[in-house]
């Protein structure tokens, strides 16, 4: 039982021993959001969790229960919150969930947390959640708690981009439910990808501004911001390796005394 | 892909079709809480989810992403919130999570929701979450949305109790991480139960009141409120059947036009 | 003036002397809620206050102003919040009232508080109110403030139950505005009980779950969950004695250095 | 039972009949605040309630449970919140209590409310509480609910001032626990006034500004802002008559269809 | 650049040097509110800022960015919030803005702040904002931060009143957009006063109470509570001198170690 | 007076006429944030306002009072919130300010708003503020209110970038207080730029993640993320023209019936 990854699958006594031994906690934060007709709505939380699992294996870290609901989908980022199925939280709800659980991890004795975000819209609210938690922790006299916060896709290496997009990278902006996410899902959860449903809409062409209420006509009906054509499990594997290695290296650099396994990722 | 149970594993297009077809949503609400040295901390969310899955199979319903963090553990209910590992939300954080997702389900077009609670301390906050959501829905002119709310253990039949506790039922009050929950976990997730770690503390003997800060000495060190001695997967199966059948019947009675599969549970 | 019980009837100089002398504060928390056609809507706050008064006399304690509005009435607990007259607070309103006044008592120099709840629906929100107050007090460096929290009916002795219900106790669940509350009111406030209006509805028969919006048809029209037939002032006296003695004993046990009068309750 | 004044002493059926008959609700709002060594801490809530009772008798109105905790005492208004015994709410706690109960009165079917404030510091927060309630009521389509809001001392007639202060009125600013409040308490609650403890501090002499944290030295130690010398029950009676008549007349003018008793106040 | 007054026009390095040198911060708080047809809607914020500028010149103080939106206009104070153009904040929004910026000034190292309020309705919310900030600062161990809070008109000297109102002062209550504010604007911002639009409504005649929703008929259509007839830049100059001198003197008295320029105001 | 741009300089009667005539409101949102030793802390709010003014001149629009405090500065975006002088709001404070004023503009009768953001960290909170306002407006039955939301730098044309960075554009990420902002300030507010203080730090080199508490060593001491070398008023003029024209065109496209002046920008 000592080699479990998921906090929720451990007993409290096991967890306590791991924390006392200096184990790091990884917190995946995702969303329940439309990802086109070919990907499941849990894509963001599944991919953030997948990165957490890969990193946890390297560092003997603990994967906390993922935050499965995220901030409201935005048209240019995830198609918009008008889609059926997209299930989002108000800003301060999400912020308070993060604030509360971070404070609990600190109470447990943890002093290092890595928050792995898989839904772009969450970014600023994870920052506020961390800030509110750190502020209250300081009121309790806890000032040595540290959080490394990241969006996993920022660890994509240029070499990988070139391999995945041999004809040129259109940029991260329209990658919602497109080549990168679909490839990652084909690698991590192929049974949840419906390749037959891959949409063929043209890429979205957004202006430099937003309009509210959402101009739903700006978004391809499928909810996919650019075609996933060219997606492949093999590409997903390359990306997954970038994230596993990149995030692990970042943690080792910033939290040098974190427990590290001797074996290297296959 | 049409026979998936979990909302997060469906594409939005599949989900939309199911909702348009009148599918019911089941929302499991649990906790991340110590359950003694023999059960995993995710026990409450796993059991609420297990009930949801069994019911969903009967009714062709959709299981929404479970709420994995619950309200602060209380000494007499779950051992208290001072345990390492127990990871809880403030009351209004939990309430707002429920409020927000319920409003989203209504926006999707759903009109029937079943909230399945697996953590006693959550009860009143699920009620407030539902009330706040219903109030805002009424502001939007939505007045036909209905929620059936339950604690799953309230569906335990007397006959089952008698079979599980042949020497007399000590009552639900001390059943935290005890015979019933351990039996259910042995049935649903045997690989997560560590029978070798079953504690042998005597049952807790609580007074008629609470004291805060928690008198931690009142709670057996293990976190288990009464011995799980006598737990068995077979007993868990009996309980699971009560919940699957009882909850399904309740839904059929209250939401008679809900889609029902013809096959009966094996 | 030194023998007053009610904080609000004392001058601040008297109160300060009492607090400096170690006097305990008792905070009654009730509701404004329908209690059938025969009992006044203030029943919960009057009974919580009555217990506080009886205990205060034993322990030379101070009775703080009662919280007269409580959490939303629930069908199975108090008939439901749809009744005309029932006047309830949102969860966080009630929680914040309790948080704020508890912090004030601590600022005054008090270090022991007994919160006496007379409305079942309030329970979890009194817990959250206490927790939020304790948390903020700890930020101020106050860590020796203690709260004993109770529902008064949990101090009913088995012997008393047997005397009051010679034909068998139907259980606390349906006791809203029924034999126990009516008897207590006949003992404490007979002029407010209208025996001619005693309803004769059959007991409510609730299922194992809730439905929202409230299925108002589940609740007897009168708002009384089971018949008050057999109520009597003499029975109320027995109950009152249980509460006065039981709560006093609990306080003496948990807060042993609390000031105790020498005379015993008549 | 039909001639009761206090909502909390009525059954819901009685209350409902009264509301259906167009009865007006009066809501006293006070504080728990030091009022010198001679007056009880509940002075503000007792006086607001006394006005409500006198008016209710004229108009066959209903007196709702008083709000017993108010906003934080300010040095120039009530001596400051640093006094032992003063027990105050945060602004939004008080505001939300008022918002919630006002919405409940509207749900009951009431359409006219009079909020009688007895604690100066509450004024702006009663305004915000009313505004938030009215806003939410409008979301529900209720737009005919009206609130008359007042501080009772604004109904003091010039003739009365001249009688009470034959040597000239020093103004309302320093009247905290001074001649007017003490006279009113001598009239309404003489048993709660300790004339032997009447302080003889000189009047406070405040500058044109505030400093926070409170410069406690600005406030006379007793907490009384100007001497109560010259207070008398007879003067309290004059004031009480002004308030009873003035408030009643205001209500009759603004809410002309309110039920009015035929008898005149003695 | 060292002689700039406005924080927002300074670089952070300049500001830091000033703060390290003990410079005082002045925070103007105003509103965006109708001020009749002849005055701009920014009158309150402009006048609070003008006072701040005059004082800052005397004391080498720093003028922070003004809070341009205030609490909801009240009929008797500023005409009511139903006017087109009046743009107000909810109570807790305003309170939180003040709480947040005060905490930031303390983080910068400032220990003395003067909050200059120019909108009567803001008063109690500035008090709550200050209180919430002080409370949190105390959690951080900062207990030497002081705030001097004022409404600028309270510094009007009797001699000035007599000069401005040779025929008798009607009192501050109806001075909204009337002689004093118009004179001050003629002095400070003559280009923003439209003397041709000076309304000639009679003074408002308010009762001793409020009614909500606002009885808009109580307020002169122009939004001006009493005629500005007799306003003059020269009168504004007298008032401005009172405020500049009075506020400066108050600060010197309460915060004696504040940096003072040698030159005297012309 | 009819040709004023700033709402706060208009009387309410003028404003009302403009709104009734269909005038558009522009709301600048900025920050009070360090911008290196050479730029004032109000840079973000000044530049957002400058864009608003240029656009307002084209469209006969109204410039609302700018929001002068923004969300907490982030290391990679604005240097971090640890700098002396940076004065930020909590997320929900900023969000609620925007929610409240947007609702007020709608109450005034406006149906079109352009929110011009000048501080990157504000982006998601402006989105939430708009969403909360729209939601409440819908409760009031107002569903035709539209907001165009933008960060002004997204209107920089490629041709302009090439002219400003003849040796290649390092990207927007490090442009805090660098060439673009300094050039714009040299154009709009040259008297507030201290060219002698232009820092010569090397560009910041941030990793792909954040660490909290902020690793202050990551940020150049000056607070400038990349050298402003090469800044020039002439470049600022080019940028300003892009924004004036680009934003005006966007508004004309999305809000085609907005009032348009005939004259073209010089």
From TrEMBL, chains A, B, C, D, E, F:
Signal peptide: none annotated. Its cofactor is Zn(2+). Keywords: Hydrolase, Metal-binding, Zinc. This is Creatinine amidohydrolase. It comes from the Bacteria. InterPro entries: Creatininase, Creatininase-like_sf, Creatininase/forma_Hydrolase. Belongs to the creatininase superfamily. Gene3D superfamilies: Creatininase. PANTHER family: 2-AMINO-5-FORMYLAMINO-6-RIBOSYLAMINOPYRIMIDIN-4(3H)-ONE 5'-MONOPHOSPHATE DEFORMYLASE, 3-DEHYDRO-SCYLLO-INOSOSE HYDROLASE. SUPFAM superfamilies: Creatininase. GO terms for molecular function: creatininase activity; hydrolase activity, acting on carbon-nitrogen (but not peptide) bonds, in linear amides; metal ion binding. One of its GO terms (biological process) is riboflavin biosynthetic process.
């Amino acid at each position: 039982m000592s080699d479990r990854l998921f906090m929720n699958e451990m007993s409290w006594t096991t967890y306590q021993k791991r924390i006392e031994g200096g184990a790091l906690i990884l917190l995946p934060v995702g969303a329940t959001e439309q990802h086109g007709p070919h990907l499941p709505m849990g894509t963001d939380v599944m991919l953030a969790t997948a990165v957490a699992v890969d990193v946890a294996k390297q560092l003997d870290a603990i994967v906390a229960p993922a935050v499965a609901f995220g901030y409201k989908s935005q048209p240019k980022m995830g198609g918009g919150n008008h889609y059926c199925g997209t299930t989002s939280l108000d800003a301060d709800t999400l912020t308070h969930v993060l604030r509360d659980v971070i404070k609990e991890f600190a109470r447990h004795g943890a002093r290092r947390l890595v928050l792995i975000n898989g839904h772009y819209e969450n970014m600023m609210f994870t920052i506020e959640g961390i800030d509110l938690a750190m502020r209250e922790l300081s009121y309790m006299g806890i000032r040595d708690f540290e959080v490394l916060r990241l969006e996993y896709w920022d660890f994509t290496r240029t070499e990988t981009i070139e391999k995945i997009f041999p004809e040129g990278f259109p940029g991260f902006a329209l990658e919602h439910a497109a080549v990168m996410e679909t490839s990652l899902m084909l690698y991590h959860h192929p049974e949840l990808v419906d390749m037959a449903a891959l949409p063929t809409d043209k890429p979205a062409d957004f202006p430099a501004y937003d309009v509210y209420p959402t101009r739903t006509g700006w978004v391809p009906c499928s909810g996919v911001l650019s075609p996933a054509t060219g997606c492949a499990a093999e590409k997903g594997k390359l990306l997954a390796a970038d994230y596993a290695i990149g995030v692990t290296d970042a943690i080792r650099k910033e939290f040098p005394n974190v427990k590290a396994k001797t074996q290297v990722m296959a």
